[in-house]
Design brief:
It is a single chain. Strands 1-3-2 form a 3-stranded antiparallel β-sheet. A 3-stranded mixed β-sheet has the order 4-5-6. It is mainly α and 736 residues long. Helix 16 packs across helix 17, helix 22 packs across helix 24 and helix 29 packs antiparallel against helix 30. It is 51% helix and 10% strand.
């Protein structure tokens, strides 16, 4: 192929695509020589750069440097018109390219006393080199392409052995191809020597174009230009025995490739060669495939990478891990969490076993192999259940492990103390064990943080049968009297009537005591937080909360909230509470009897502050100094004013949606006015406000003026409708 111009550029791209599997193993210099010499083609610098861009990323600059500065005269240039075309000598094609590309050929070429290639291994290496291209061709074309790279003939025995080894082809089929294609391979001699005709193999463009469309021929991984040896040295030869070579390779792997060696990466092969040279000051005389074979013999493949074992460290680590498991089983454990083993030996598992810390199956497989290697580990067998290691004679149970530890304790254990006793379980396993032990394992502290909680086996509560009988009788009497019993009152009754029993359980908090009693007496009573009731009988929690308040002359909202959290999931029933209590500030409630109000004077003064039929609380917060003094050291504020109107005032009423934990909302209205409800007040407020247009505007204005605690009102549509009707009616009368 010696045409020039556009056709040559297109053919060159097809050739490069066809030879991609070979070119990716070569340097820029050898690759250019290989294509230009083998196909006798002249090509411009631009055409070469365009074609080889799919193989190398070096670009035009590197190609120009190779073509113009090669001192050995490998490349020739020829000026045609304004373009310069380059080619390479055929002689150098064999001496340079095949010397680097095909180690087997170099081995053969050094034997000058042989007239032909009579070594099947030489041909096998050539077949392996062109494996990706050969699979697309017929037997005849396979033979042509392999034999064309050698200057000498090849014996029929070597050809048949190599093709049988790689393609499983019978000898008779190969001989038939030779005998039926004498024009291609020539007549056979007595020694059965064959070679491919140079005329036949020179025209490769058709095969290249066909191969260019086959995705399997286009290799995606480019061989790095840095190889294990110099270009003209036999890559497969090594002057070390296998033991010494394996030791060197293992050292490089341990020091530089602890995360594994990716045998598919040409870049990693180049890195391995460089590290070997740095360690031993000599080149690694192994080709890529040979290195892979050595590493596979020394270790194993995991997740596409090769790892090499240090058997001594591997055995030591597995023994330690097995001892760890045996200690857990010896103290009665039903299972061991792999999470704990991985956390304890994480770095060593990765560095010495080459097992991913998430690969549970592989880790258990290694552990299972240990007992069979030494009788020192006994005859017990391991089994894997989920992410647990178990013995084949025990059923895994987190709950059983937790209960076993707590049963041996007669004082509550903290979470950290329990974790130390259960060192063979993960944090998740301990939590699961506690959650499945609720029928007899209780929490004895009210700490919000799990790390501060204390746990106890309820049946270990240090209380006599007589003491337990007294508690049951007392609870029953309280339920008969008022419908429920409270834990604090039980504790007080025990101190008064059975001090000896109270002393035995003095170290237990009231919270912990009632949780234990819920287990011990759960078949007789229902325990709902601090409230105990008859079995299956629902208690009105609002009554319980109001009773809780009335038994105190003074309490804070925080105390009330804590009680509500324990008995009612946090619902304080604040409207019910405010019917029974007075609020004197943001945080404090008192019984109504604690304050005496001068109702007549206060109502008279308040009448001077109320503008019209009602006034929002927001407008009154700066007018408290005008109200008469209140005894007991109290000062007026909106909270106290809200409670006064709700409980004591004779002339005023509250116009609001309800009491709020934070803030006072709504208004104070005159008792004798036409506005008797919050809805009527909201309608009137909107009629007097001309700044709203839509329902959302109306809702926003009610909220901004302090009538609503939140920007939500179930009856807003109805209120807006009535307000608009009144506005229209007012405007109609105004026009008339």
């Amino acid at each position: 192929m010696n045409d020039v111009g556009r056709d040559t550029a297109l053919a060159l791209r097809a050739i490069v695509a066809y030879e991609n599997g070979v070119l990716r193993r070569l340097t820029v210099r050898a690759g250019l020589c290989y294509v230009l010499a083998k196909y006798s083609v002249y090509a411009t610098l631009a055409a070469l750069a365009d074609a080889f861009a799919q193989v190398w990323s070096d670009g035009m600059l590197a190609i120009r440097g190779v073509l113009r500065t090669d001192v050995e005269g490998v490349f020739e240039s020829k000026a045609i018109g304004e373009e310069t075309y380059y080619s390479a000598t055929n002689g150098d094609y064999y001496s340079v390219v095949l010397g680097q590309l095909l180690p087997a050929y170099r081995k053969y070429a050094q034997r000058k006393d042989s007239a032909c290639i009579d070594d099947a291994e030489v041909l096998i290496e050539a077949i392996d080199l062109y494996a990706s291209q050969l699979k697309h061709f017929s037997l005849k074309e396979k033979l042509v392409r392999i034999l064309s790279i050698f200057q000498n003939s090849c014996s029929i025995d070597a050809i048949c052995s190599s093709f049988a080894a790689r393609f499983d082809l019978p000898r008779e089929a190969i001989i038939a191809v030779f005998e039926n294609n004498c024009s291609v391979f020539g007549e056979s001699s007595n020694a059965w020597y064959y070679r491919a005709s140079a005329i036949y193999v020179s025209d490769i463009a058709d095969g290249a174009s066909k191969c260019n469309n086959a995705p399997e021929c286009i290799e995606t991984d480019r061989e790095c230009g840095e190889s294990g040896v110099e270009a003209n040295m036999p890559i497969y030869v090594c002057d070390l025995d296998d033991g010494e070579l394996d030791g060197r390779l293992a050292k490089v792997m341990r020091e530089s490739f602890s995360a594994g060696y990716d045998y598919r990466s040409s870049l990693m092969f180049a890195q391995f060669c460089r590290r070997y040279r740095e360690c031993y000051d000599v080149d690694l005389r192994l080709r890529r495939e040979a290195l892979e074979a050595h590493l596979r013999q020394m270790g194993e493949e995991r997740d596409g990478k090769l790892f090499v074992y240090d058997e001594a460290k591997k055995d030591q680590l597995l023994r330690e891990m097995w001892d760890f498991i045996e200690r857990a089983f010896d103290i009665g454990a039903t299972c061991v969490c792999l999470d704990v083993i991985v956390a304890k030996y994480r770095d060593r598992i990765r560095e010495e076993l080459f097992v991913g810390c998430g690969d549970a199956d592989a880790l258990v497989e290694l552990l299972e192999s240990v007992p069979s290697k030494s009788s020192a580990f006994g005859t017990k067998k391991l089994k894997k259940t989920g992410y647990l290691i178990c013995r084949d004679d025990r059923r895994p149970s987190f709950a059983e492990d937790v209960r076993r530890i707590l049963k041996s304790q007669y004082e509550p254990m903290s979470a950290s103390e329990l974790a130390k006793k259960l060192w063979f379980l993960s944090e998740t396993g301990i939590k699961e064990g506690l959650s499945h032990s609720r029928e007899d394992v209780v929490i004895t502290s009210k700490k919000n943080q799990e790390s501060d909680r204390y746990f106890f086996f309820a049946k270990n509560l240090p209380i006599s049968a007589e003491g337990l009988r007294f508690i049951a009788e007392w609870i029953g009497q309280e339920i008969a009297r008022k419908g429920y019993a409270i834990d604090e009152e039980l504790r007080s009754a025990m101190r008064r009537q059975m001090p000896s029993v109270a002393d035995d359980i003095e170290s237990f908090t009231t919270y912990g005591l009632r949780n234990c009693l819920a287990v011990l007496l759960g078949d007789q009573f229902d325990f709902n937080g601090r409230v105990m009731s008859a079995k299956g009988v629902k208690v009105d929690m609002s009554t319980v909360i109001v009773d809780f308040c009335r038994k105190r002359t003074r309490l804070t909202f925080d105390e009330l909230q804590e009680f509500a959290d324990e008995v009612n999931g946090g619902n304080m029933y604040i409207d019910k509470v405010m019917e029974a209590m007075l609020r004197i500030d943001e945080d404090t409630l008192v019984v109504p009897e604690a304050i005496e109000f001068d109702v007549l004077r206060i109502d008279a003064a308040l009448g001077n502050l109320i503008d019209g039929d009602y006034t929002p609380f927001r407008s009154l917060q700066h007018l408290h100094l005008r109200l008469p003094h209140v005894g007991g050291g109290l000062s007026w504020n909106n909270y106290l004013l809200e409670s006064y109107v709700a409980h004591c005032s004779q002339s005023f009423v509250l116009l609001h949606q309800g009491f709020c934990r934070r803030g006072t909302y709504g208004a104070i209205g005159r008792r004798d006015s036409a506005i008797r409800s919050f809805d009527e007040m909201a309608i009137d407020a909107l009629v007097c406000d001309d700044t709203w247009k839509t329902t959302n505007d109306a809702l926003r204005r009610l909220y901004e003026n302090g009538y609503l605690a939140i920007k939500a009102f179930a009856k807003i549509d109805e209120v807006v409708k009535c307000a608009r009707a009144r506005v229209q009616q007012f405007q109609k009368h105004k026009v008339v």
